Write the C-alpha coordinates for this entry.
Amino acid sequence: MQAGKFVASYFDAWNHSDPEAVANHLASDGIYIDMPENIRRTPDELIVTLTEFFGEFPHHYELLGEVLTSHNSIAFQYRVCPIANGGSGEFAAPYCGAEFMTLEGRAAVKITDYYDYPTPTEQNKYAKSGLRSEQMLDYKRQLEKLMIREQAYLRPDLTLPILANAIGCSVNHLSQVINSGFGVSFFDYLNSHRVAHARQLLTELDNQCRAILNVAFSAGFNSNSAFYAAFKKHVGMTPAQFRRKARNQGS
Protein backbone atom coordinates (compact mmCIF):
# COMPACT_ATOMS: atom_id res chain seq x y z
CA MET A 1 0.00 0.00 0.00
CA GLN A 2 1.26 3.48 -0.85
CA ALA A 3 2.25 5.55 2.16
CA GLY A 4 -0.06 8.43 1.22
CA LYS A 5 -3.11 6.19 0.89
CA PHE A 6 -2.28 4.38 4.12
CA VAL A 7 -2.03 7.64 6.08
CA ALA A 8 -5.18 9.05 4.43
CA SER A 9 -7.11 5.94 5.44
CA TYR A 10 -5.65 6.17 8.95
CA PHE A 11 -6.78 9.81 9.34
CA ASP A 12 -10.19 8.97 7.92
CA ALA A 13 -10.62 6.34 10.66
CA TRP A 14 -9.66 8.88 13.35
CA ASN A 15 -12.00 11.53 11.95
CA HIS A 16 -14.91 9.08 11.85
CA SER A 17 -14.21 8.18 15.51
CA ASP A 18 -13.96 4.52 14.49
CA PRO A 19 -11.67 2.70 16.96
CA GLU A 20 -11.77 -0.62 15.10
CA ALA A 21 -10.87 1.06 11.80
CA VAL A 22 -7.91 2.76 13.49
CA ALA A 23 -6.76 -0.52 15.04
CA ASN A 24 -7.16 -2.32 11.71
CA HIS A 25 -4.16 -0.34 10.44
CA LEU A 26 -2.07 -2.42 12.83
CA ALA A 27 -1.02 -5.99 12.11
CA SER A 28 -2.68 -8.60 14.35
CA ASP A 29 0.50 -8.75 16.43
CA GLY A 30 1.27 -5.07 15.99
CA ILE A 31 1.82 -2.58 18.79
CA TYR A 32 0.76 1.03 19.36
CA ILE A 33 3.20 2.94 21.55
CA ASP A 34 1.88 6.00 23.38
CA MET A 35 5.08 7.84 24.27
CA PRO A 36 3.71 10.52 26.68
CA GLU A 37 1.84 7.87 28.68
CA ASN A 38 4.64 5.30 28.24
CA ILE A 39 2.05 2.63 27.39
CA ARG A 40 2.11 -0.09 24.72
CA ARG A 41 -1.21 -1.31 23.37
CA THR A 42 -2.19 -4.29 21.26
CA PRO A 43 -4.88 -3.78 18.58
CA ASP A 44 -7.61 -5.00 20.97
CA GLU A 45 -6.36 -2.77 23.78
CA LEU A 46 -6.22 0.16 21.36
CA ILE A 47 -9.88 -0.39 20.44
CA VAL A 48 -10.90 -0.19 24.10
CA THR A 49 -8.82 2.95 24.72
CA LEU A 50 -10.04 4.75 21.59
CA THR A 51 -13.69 3.88 22.21
CA GLU A 52 -13.40 5.73 25.52
CA PHE A 53 -11.43 8.59 24.01
CA PHE A 54 -13.79 9.16 21.08
CA GLY A 55 -16.81 9.01 23.39
CA GLU A 56 -15.52 11.71 25.71
CA PHE A 57 -13.25 13.86 23.54
CA PRO A 58 -14.49 14.29 19.94
CA HIS A 59 -11.76 15.89 17.80
CA HIS A 60 -10.82 16.54 14.21
CA TYR A 61 -7.42 15.33 13.00
CA GLU A 62 -5.45 16.90 10.16
CA LEU A 63 -2.13 16.17 8.54
CA LEU A 64 0.63 18.80 8.81
CA GLY A 65 3.09 18.88 5.94
CA GLU A 66 4.11 15.84 3.93
CA VAL A 67 4.28 12.15 4.73
CA LEU A 68 7.93 11.11 4.90
CA THR A 69 8.90 7.60 3.85
CA SER A 70 12.07 5.52 4.09
CA HIS A 71 12.11 1.82 3.17
CA ASN A 72 9.30 0.38 5.34
CA SER A 73 8.89 3.44 7.57
CA ILE A 74 6.45 6.37 7.55
CA ALA A 75 6.63 9.60 9.54
CA PHE A 76 4.23 12.54 9.67
CA GLN A 77 3.03 15.37 11.88
CA TYR A 78 -0.57 16.12 12.77
CA ARG A 79 -2.82 18.62 14.52
CA VAL A 80 -5.81 17.71 16.71
CA CYS A 81 -8.64 20.22 17.09
CA PRO A 82 -11.43 19.66 19.65
CA ILE A 83 -14.94 19.69 18.21
CA ALA A 84 -17.05 22.43 19.78
CA ASN A 85 -19.49 21.44 22.52
CA GLY A 86 -18.33 17.84 22.53
CA GLY A 87 -17.31 15.60 25.39
CA SER A 88 -16.12 16.88 28.72
CA GLY A 89 -13.93 19.60 27.22
CA GLU A 90 -10.78 18.51 29.04
CA PHE A 91 -8.57 19.59 26.12
CA ALA A 92 -9.72 23.11 25.28
CA ALA A 93 -6.98 24.00 22.79
CA PRO A 94 -5.63 22.25 19.69
CA TYR A 95 -2.45 20.24 20.13
CA CYS A 96 0.09 18.71 17.78
CA GLY A 97 1.97 15.47 17.53
CA ALA A 98 4.02 13.18 15.34
CA GLU A 99 3.80 9.50 14.50
CA PHE A 100 6.38 7.04 13.23
CA MET A 101 5.15 3.80 11.66
CA THR A 102 6.94 0.62 10.68
CA LEU A 103 5.03 -1.18 7.95
CA GLU A 104 5.02 -4.82 7.00
CA GLY A 105 2.96 -5.48 3.91
CA ARG A 106 -0.38 -3.67 4.21
CA ALA A 107 -0.30 -3.09 7.97
CA ALA A 108 1.85 -1.43 10.60
CA VAL A 109 3.74 -3.62 13.02
CA LYS A 110 4.57 -0.60 15.17
CA ILE A 111 3.07 2.86 15.56
CA THR A 112 4.92 5.26 17.86
CA ASP A 113 2.93 8.34 18.81
CA TYR A 114 4.44 11.52 20.24
CA TYR A 115 2.22 14.42 21.28
CA ASP A 116 1.94 17.15 23.88
CA TYR A 117 -1.26 18.50 25.42
CA PRO A 118 -2.12 20.18 28.72
CA THR A 119 -3.14 17.79 31.48
CA PRO A 120 -5.13 19.79 34.05
CA THR A 121 -5.41 18.55 37.61
CA GLU A 122 -8.75 17.14 38.73
CA GLN A 123 -9.33 20.28 40.83
CA ASN A 124 -8.70 22.66 37.93
CA LYS A 125 -10.66 20.48 35.52
CA TYR A 126 -13.88 20.94 37.47
CA ALA A 127 -13.17 24.31 39.09
CA LYS A 128 -15.95 26.05 37.14
CA SER A 129 -18.42 23.18 36.89
CA GLY A 130 -20.80 24.61 39.50
CA LEU A 131 -21.71 21.14 40.74
CA ARG A 132 -22.51 21.22 44.46
CA SER A 133 -21.71 18.24 46.69
CA GLU A 134 -25.40 17.50 47.35
CA GLN A 135 -26.09 17.54 43.60
CA MET A 136 -23.22 15.14 43.03
CA LEU A 137 -24.62 12.70 45.60
CA ASP A 138 -28.07 12.92 44.02
CA TYR A 139 -26.71 12.31 40.51
CA LYS A 140 -24.59 9.48 41.85
CA ARG A 141 -27.65 7.79 43.39
CA GLN A 142 -29.62 8.20 40.16
CA LEU A 143 -26.72 6.81 38.16
CA GLU A 144 -26.41 3.74 40.36
CA LYS A 145 -30.17 3.16 40.09
CA LEU A 146 -30.00 3.26 36.30
CA MET A 147 -26.99 0.99 36.14
CA ILE A 148 -27.84 -1.55 38.86
CA ARG A 149 -31.63 -1.72 39.01
CA GLU A 150 -32.45 -0.89 35.39
CA GLN A 151 -29.26 -2.34 33.88
CA ALA A 152 -28.76 0.58 31.50
CA TYR A 153 -25.29 -0.78 30.69
CA LEU A 154 -26.92 -3.53 28.59
CA ARG A 155 -27.65 -0.94 25.90
CA PRO A 156 -24.84 -1.36 23.34
CA ASP A 157 -25.32 2.25 22.19
CA LEU A 158 -25.09 3.74 25.68
CA THR A 159 -22.99 6.90 25.73
CA LEU A 160 -22.21 9.59 28.26
CA PRO A 161 -24.69 12.07 26.66
CA ILE A 162 -27.49 9.44 26.62
CA LEU A 163 -26.90 8.63 30.29
CA ALA A 164 -26.71 12.32 31.23
CA ASN A 165 -30.02 12.94 29.48
CA ALA A 166 -31.64 10.05 31.37
CA ILE A 167 -30.45 11.49 34.68
CA GLY A 168 -31.30 15.06 33.75
CA CYS A 169 -27.86 16.61 34.11
CA SER A 170 -25.19 17.96 31.80
CA VAL A 171 -22.53 15.75 30.21
CA ASN A 172 -19.82 17.65 32.09
CA HIS A 173 -21.54 17.12 35.44
CA LEU A 174 -22.04 13.40 34.85
CA SER A 175 -18.41 13.07 33.79
CA GLN A 176 -17.43 14.77 37.06
CA VAL A 177 -19.70 12.46 39.07
CA ILE A 178 -18.06 9.37 37.56
CA ASN A 179 -14.48 10.69 37.57
CA SER A 180 -14.58 12.17 41.08
CA GLY A 181 -17.30 10.06 42.67
CA PHE A 182 -16.07 6.66 41.48
CA GLY A 183 -12.46 7.45 40.61
CA VAL A 184 -12.71 6.03 37.08
CA SER A 185 -13.51 7.16 33.56
CA PHE A 186 -16.99 6.72 32.11
CA PHE A 187 -15.77 3.91 29.88
CA ASP A 188 -14.19 1.95 32.74
CA TYR A 189 -17.29 2.51 34.86
CA LEU A 190 -19.54 1.23 32.06
CA ASN A 191 -17.34 -1.76 31.28
CA SER A 192 -17.07 -2.77 34.94
CA HIS A 193 -20.84 -3.31 34.98
CA ARG A 194 -20.83 -5.10 31.63
CA VAL A 195 -17.98 -7.37 32.66
CA ALA A 196 -19.70 -8.19 35.96
CA HIS A 197 -22.83 -9.17 34.01
CA ALA A 198 -20.76 -11.28 31.61
CA ARG A 199 -19.10 -13.06 34.53
CA GLN A 200 -22.50 -13.96 35.89
CA LEU A 201 -23.61 -15.35 32.52
CA LEU A 202 -20.41 -17.36 32.16
CA THR A 203 -20.91 -19.07 35.53
CA GLU A 204 -24.59 -19.97 35.05
CA LEU A 205 -25.21 -23.62 34.15
CA ASP A 206 -27.71 -22.68 31.46
CA ASN A 207 -25.01 -20.68 29.69
CA GLN A 208 -22.14 -23.16 29.94
CA CYS A 209 -22.40 -24.04 26.23
CA ARG A 210 -23.30 -20.56 25.10
CA ALA A 211 -20.94 -18.95 22.59
CA ILE A 212 -18.70 -16.35 24.16
CA LEU A 213 -19.61 -13.87 21.43
CA ASN A 214 -23.27 -14.18 22.42
CA VAL A 215 -22.30 -13.52 26.04
CA ALA A 216 -20.48 -10.38 24.91
CA PHE A 217 -23.54 -9.06 23.06
CA SER A 218 -25.85 -9.99 25.95
CA ALA A 219 -23.68 -7.95 28.32
CA GLY A 220 -23.89 -4.81 26.16
CA PHE A 221 -20.64 -5.03 24.18
CA ASN A 222 -20.91 -4.47 20.45
CA SER A 223 -17.67 -6.14 19.40
CA ASN A 224 -15.86 -9.31 20.41
CA SER A 225 -12.45 -7.63 20.53
CA ALA A 226 -13.65 -4.87 22.87
CA PHE A 227 -15.25 -7.50 25.13
CA TYR A 228 -12.10 -9.61 25.35
CA ALA A 229 -9.86 -6.62 26.06
CA ALA A 230 -12.20 -5.18 28.72
CA PHE A 231 -12.79 -8.58 30.36
CA LYS A 232 -9.07 -9.28 30.61
CA LYS A 233 -8.44 -5.80 32.02
CA HIS A 234 -11.06 -6.16 34.77
CA VAL A 235 -10.75 -9.88 35.53
CA GLY A 236 -7.13 -10.66 34.68
CA MET A 237 -7.98 -13.53 32.31
CA THR A 238 -9.90 -14.11 29.10
CA PRO A 239 -13.61 -15.04 29.16
CA ALA A 240 -12.79 -18.60 28.05
CA GLN A 241 -10.22 -19.00 30.83
CA PHE A 242 -12.71 -17.64 33.36
CA ARG A 243 -15.42 -20.07 32.23
CA ARG A 244 -13.05 -23.04 32.39
CA LYS A 245 -12.02 -22.03 35.91
CA ALA A 246 -15.66 -21.69 36.95
CA ARG A 247 -16.45 -25.12 35.54
CA ASN A 248 -13.54 -26.72 37.36
CA GLN A 249 -14.55 -25.12 40.64
CA GLY A 250 -18.12 -26.28 40.21
CA SER A 251 -17.28 -29.89 39.37
